[in-house]
Design brief:
Elements (H helix, E strand, L loop, with lengths): L11 H9 L7 E4 L2 E5 L18 E9 L4 E4 L3 E4 L4 E8 L1 H39 L10 H21 L12 E4 L1 E2 L3 E4 L4 H5 L16 H7 L1 H19 L5
Parallel strand pairs: 3-7
Antiparallel strand pairs: 1-2, 2-9, 3-6, 4-5, 8-9
Length: 246
């Protein structure tokens, strides 16, 4: 692989000297199957964390936490907190960049696999419903709402699938990487190259993995609120539309 002169802002001679020197990684650790590095003081020694190969260039990577913390409030119901994220300039190997583009296209293809059949099926069902409709004027048969239930998601999914490879903050997007944890000081990457990971010292500090509340746990925690709201709505419906006593 041909290296470009001036990598990291250095001259071609300095770049060659660095390429020939030992690639020492500093301020990075392994924690189980993850790699933790200090956002402000790490040094990967010109190695790509994902391929363990010599890097071709420096690229700003947007790291976003995979897990989302859900919370329940009485006024706003159940909602997710904004995901922790940060941007860090890392040395990367061009082959990893190609893999990222491929991953982006795979996600788009999966969306289209469901959206296009739904759209085509909905249109066909609507055409069949119109051709065989014998309902009275001003009414529609049961097939029309069903066709709309397929066409509308089909249109949305088709647009999303076609646009997915061109969006910056989508799953599988180039240079947007979901990670295990993002803090003010550290980033925890779960898909680092095994050889890169095993070359690092062990992480001996408290875990930085977030203790987020999942959606199911938030639903269970908020069950009393939901039941109270449902009971209140039931009373309103009963006294508003229930049987009237004379």
């Amino acid at each position: 692989m041909v290296r470009q002169p001036g990598y990291l802002g250095l001259s071609s001679i300095e770049t060659q000297l660095m390429a020939n020197s030992s690639q020492t990684v500093q301020n990075a650790w392994r924690d189980g199957a993850s790699v933790i590095f200090d956002r402000s003081s790490f040094d990967f020694g010109e190695r790509c964390i994902w391929t363990n190969q010599s890097a071709d260039r420096v690229q700003t990577i947007d790291f976003v936490e995979k897990t989302v913390n859900w919370r329940v409030t009485f006024m706003r119901g159940i909602r997710p907190d904004p995901a922790n994220r940060c941007s860090v300039a890392l040395p990367i190997d061009e082959t990893w960049s190609v893999d990222q583009k491929f991953a982006k296209r795979i996600v788009a293809r999966k969306i289209l696999m469901f959206a296009v059949p739904a759209l085509v099926g909905g249109i066909a069902l609507a055409a069949f419903a119109i051709a065989t409709d014998d309902s009275p004027r001003g009414t529609v048969g049961p097939l029309v709402p069903l066709s709309l239930a397929l066409v509308v998601p089909g249109i949305i999914g088709t647009i999303a699938g076609l646009a997915w490879p061109h969006l910056e903050e989508t799953s599988g997007a180039k240079f947007v990487v979901p990670v295990e944890a993002v803090t003010d000081q550290f980033v925890c990457v779960g898909d680092a190259h095994p050889q890169f990971r095993e070359s690092l010292p062990l992480w001996d500090r408290p875990s930085i993995h977030p203790n987020h509340t999942t959606f199911i746990a938030a639903m269970i925690k908020g069950a009393p609120i939901f039941l109270l709201l449902a009971a209140f709505a039931g009373l309103l419906i009963y006294f508003g539309f229930g049987p009237k006593t004379r």
